[in-house]
Design a protein that fits this description.
Helix content: over 70%
Number of helices: 3
Order of helices and strands: HHH
Radius of gyration: 15 Å
Largest sheet: none
Number of domains: 1
Number of strands: 0
Structural class: mainly alpha
Oligomer: single chain
């Protein structure tokens, strides 16, 4: 389980380092989103594969990394959309 959390943190840090633009969420938010998405995806894969709760396997690690990447892309796109929209009023 700890490995999935680390995978989410690493993906969050890499996303911040490689794809940082004005209007992106702060680093803390990106790391938290990566951490949560990676942990949940690893947990779900462990449950689906009938593994131990704290087991670390390649499928879970891959799923954790992909889930963190998808969640971070979603958060960044939502943040940019809110910055690009004009304020009515």
């Amino acid at each position: 389980m700890f490995g999935y959390l680390v995978a989410g943190l690493v993906v969050g840090g890499l996303m911040r380092a490689l794809r940082h633009e004005p209007g992106d969420p702060p680093l803390f938010v990106q790391l938290c989103v990566g951490l949560i998405a990676g942990g949940l995806a690893g947990l779900v894969v462990n449950l689906l594969l009938d593994e131990d709760f704290l087991a670390l396997d390649p499928w879970g690690f891959t799923a954790a990394s992909i889930a963190a990447l998808v969640a971070l892309l979603f958060v960044q796109s939502r943040a940019r959309r809110n910055v690009d929209e004009p304020i009515d009023g």
